[in-house]
Design goal:
mainly alpha; elongated; single chain
């Protein structure tokens, strides 16, 4: 369940900006969630800190020859896989 989307939908429809905690309370009041479900850890998004050490987006680009073994007419010295030696 994505409380952020539910919260955004409520805000878009009503103009009311609720906390995620209040959204949970309303879902329980309306019978859409049980209190047990609402009490689950991790239901409210608290950020990515527990998964990542920084908030810097980075990626590593691997040369295609390190991922695929290229065979056929395009196979040359530049694309030759180290295991082919």
């Amino acid at each position: 369940m994505n409380l952020i989307y539910i919260r955004a939908a409520i805000q878009a429809a009503t103009g009311v900006d609720l906390t995620q905690e209040r959204v949970l309370e309303l879902l329980v009041e309306e019978g859409l969630l049980t209190q047990s479900q609402a009490n689950q850890d991790g239901l409210i998004f608290r950020g990515y800190d527990e998964f990542f050490h920084t908030d810097i987006a980075e990626c590593r680009i691997e040369p295609v020859v390190e991922v695929l073994r290229i065979e056929g007419p395009i196979h040359n010295e530049k694309t030759k896989h180290p295991e082919d030696s």
